[in-house]
């Protein structure tokens, strides 16, 4: 009996250790599964549709012409991402410097939760506000027929990436040791000169990582762009035109595809490309984020 | 000399303005939603089913659908998320494998939500043949919020002093007994914070549920985990872009209900986090 209980305890310990280990490596398994199922479902597209035509094609017209040209979606995503980042970088880094270096403690403790709230507002709500408020403003200011443009998407996405950019940049600024600041002040620099010539360069890799993570968020954002960028998969190079991103294409068209068909498979293929892009962005950010801790 | 201080002032004002722009955006959205949406909020709106092609009536089945999804997501994500954090904090050594696991968690949280939707469609809906169902949608959302749960739980476990573990082990408890009876109860506030942040995220996501569970219109209440449900974020998308002549009130009301639900979880989460941080300092 005693022997049995000992055996049972040993077995239980074995089981628990294995279970805990399995959960531990779950994140690797999940990433692997995501990749596997994206590849599995896009095989049909890559084997039947000419790859070169996909990469260089200028028309995305899956139902009418059965053309799957990637260029319009790519330019749509690039246009919106580029616009968003141009807006987000000065706002994000500016706010991070203000919060990290200038704001009195009480102000900082009020501002930070408000910015955190921004991160929790669902993208569909931001998209809805975009339709109701931002698009009409853009329509009137630029005298357009329709306000649902790349610019509307860029502005809204810029704000959505700000919580990430601000909080990580601020962490990086806080990680700069105070002796750096003291040394600069002691040499006669003003506080602003200290910030711009000492603190920011020292925190630059963290700020870069923050920007990359914000970029990842912008590239992957779906609902907001689906709702407010006009849904037009054409090649345009103006922010005042409607566009269609990679993400919005997947969300908008998956419902109307035939399961296992070419169109279905094509959407998984562009999903695979999207996954790869964001994966690389995150890997790059991670490299730089580790440097925050090592100043 | 004067010029230097003038420059300083100038840039300080710029920094202040950029911060104010961000704050104004957040508060603007919240107050605008409250002003526009509150006129739609009524007991009928949250207790009745949609009528006349979702142009009248309420959003009761929609709220219920989102609650079902939240519960399902928690059932799947909490146990594995907590176990995963236990592995990282209590078992794992500083090996290459641990480094890869941490990198995977970071990357998981960076995967776009629409890609989770594709994965859920490919794996749960089609490969495992769950169909578009609460089960498939909950599992997809569970994977989406897993990084949040793991990170929050691990931080909570880290905050438990080692002396607690040593005392328990010295009393003859096994490692597992120590974790179950000492470490986990001590880190409960942090774990709850993680769960609440995760819920807030899961409740607001649209792209992952479009292909895995969300129904365009489903006035009947779900009767099994294989039913489709309506959900708040998808319903807002439908009202805002997919059907014409929807009264503005219905749209703003739905948006406000979704925002209130999410802010509710976020605020409780913040309260729990502040409490657990205060306790750590004491």
How does this structure look, described?
- The complex is a heterodimer of chains A (295) and B (282).
- In chain A, a hairpin with a 5-residue loop joins β1 (60-61) and β2.
- Chain A has 295 residues and is mostly helical.
- Chain A has a two-stranded antiparallel ribbon.
- Chain A has helices at residues 2-24, 26-48, 51-56, 71-102, 105-120, 123-141, 150-174, 178-186, 191-202, 204-220, 223-228, 246-253, 262-289, and strands at 60-61, 67-68.
- By secondary structure, chain B is mostly helical.
- Helix content of chain B is 76%, strand content 1%.
- Chain B has helices spanning 2-37, 43-47, 60-91, 96-110, 113-127, 134-158, 162-170, 175-186, 188-204, 207-210, 232-242, 248-281, and strands spanning 50-51, 56-57.
- Chain B has a two-stranded antiparallel sheet.
- The longest helix of chain B is centred in the N-terminal third of the chain and has 36 residues, at 2-37.
- Chain B is globular, with a radius of gyration of 23 Å.
- At the A-B interface, α1, α2, α4, α5 and α6 of A face α1, α3, α4, α5 and α6 of B.
**Pattern of helices and strands of chain B:** HHEEHHHHHHHHHH
What is the CA–CA distance across the termini of chain A? 59 Å
Structural class of chain A: mainly alpha
Poorly predicted runs of chain B: none
Succession of helices and strands of chain A: HHHEEHHHHHHHHHH
Helix content of chain A: over 70%
> Could you give a short account of the major beta sheet of chain B?
2 strands, antiparallel
Content-based structural category of chain B = mainly alpha
Overview features:
heterodimer; A: 295 residues; mainly alpha; two-stranded antiparallel sheet; flat; B: 282 residues; two-stranded antiparallel ribbon; 12 helices; 2 strands; 1% strand; globular
């Amino acid at each position: 009996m005693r022997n049995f209980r000992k055996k049972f305890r040993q077995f239980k310990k074995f089981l628990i250790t294995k279970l805990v280990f399995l959960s531990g490596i779950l994140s690797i398994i999940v990433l692997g599964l995501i990749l596997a199922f994206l590849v599995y479902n896009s095989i049909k597209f890559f084997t039947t549709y000419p790859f070169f035509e996909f990469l260089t094609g200028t028309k995305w017209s899956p139902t009418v012409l059965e053309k799957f040209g990637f260029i319009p979606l790519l330019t749509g995503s690039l246009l919106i991402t580029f616009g968003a980042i141009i807006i987000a970088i000065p706002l994000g880094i500016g706010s991070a410097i203000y919060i990290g270096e200038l704001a009195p403690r009480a102000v900082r403790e009020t501002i930070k939760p408000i910015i955190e709230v921004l991160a929790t507002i669902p993208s569909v709500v931001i998209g809805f506000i975009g339709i109701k408020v931002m698009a009409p403003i853009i329509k009137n200011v630029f005298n357009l027929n329709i306000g649902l443009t790349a610019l509307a998407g860029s502005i809204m996405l810029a704000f959505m990436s700000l919580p990430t950019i601000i909080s990580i940049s601020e962490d990086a600024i806080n990680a700069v040791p105070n002796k750096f600041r003291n040394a600069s002040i002691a040499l006669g620099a003003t506080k602003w000169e200290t910030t711009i010539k000492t603190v920011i360069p020292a925190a630059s890799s963290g700020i870069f990582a923050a920007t990359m993570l914000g970029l990842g968020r912008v590239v992957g954002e779906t609902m907001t762009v689906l709702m407010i960028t006009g849904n037009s998969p054409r090649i345009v190079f103006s922010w005042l035109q409607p566009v269609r991103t990679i993400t919005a294409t997947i969300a908008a068209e998956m419902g109307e595809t035939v399961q296992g068909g070419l169109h279905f498979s094509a959407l998984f293929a562009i999903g695979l490309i999207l996954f790869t892009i964001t994966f690389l962005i995150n890997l790059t950010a991670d490299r730089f984020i580790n440097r925050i801790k090592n100043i | 000399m004067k010029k230097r201080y003038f420059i300083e002032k100038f840039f300080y004002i710029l920094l202040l303005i950029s911060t104010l722009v961000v704050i104004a955006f957040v508060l603007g959205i919240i107050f605008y939603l409250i002003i526009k949406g509150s006129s739609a909020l009524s007991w009928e709106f949250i207790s009745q089913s949609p009528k006349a092609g979702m142009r009248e009536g309420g959003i009761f089945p929609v709220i219920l659908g989102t609650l079902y999804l939240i519960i399902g997501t928690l059932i799947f994500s909490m146990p594995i998320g907590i176990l995963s954090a236990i592995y990282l904090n209590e078992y794992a050594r500083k090996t290459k494998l641990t480094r890869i696991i941490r990198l995977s968690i970071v990357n998981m949280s960076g995967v776009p939500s629409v890609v989770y939707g594709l994965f859920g469609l490919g794996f749960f809906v089609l490969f495992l043949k769950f169909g578009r169902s609460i089960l498939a949608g909950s599992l997809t959302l569970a994977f989406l919020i897993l990084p949040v749960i793991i990170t929050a739980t691990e931080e909570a476990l880290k905050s438990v002093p080692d002396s607690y573990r040593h005392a328990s082990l010295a009393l003859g408890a096994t490692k597992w007994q120590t974790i179950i009876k000492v470490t986990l109860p001590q880190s409960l506030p942090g774990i709850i914070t993680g769960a609440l942040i995760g819920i807030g995220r899961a409740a607001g996501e649209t792209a992952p549920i479009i292909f895995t569970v969300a129904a365009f219109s489903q006035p009947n209440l779900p009767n099994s985990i294989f039913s489709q449900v309506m959900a708040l974020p998808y319903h807002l998308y439908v009202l805002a872009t997919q059907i014409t002549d929807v009264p503005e009130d219905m749209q703003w009301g739905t948006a406000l209900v979704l925002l209130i639900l999410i802010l509710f979880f976020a605020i409780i989460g913040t309260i729990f986090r502040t409490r657990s941080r205060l306790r750590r300092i004491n």
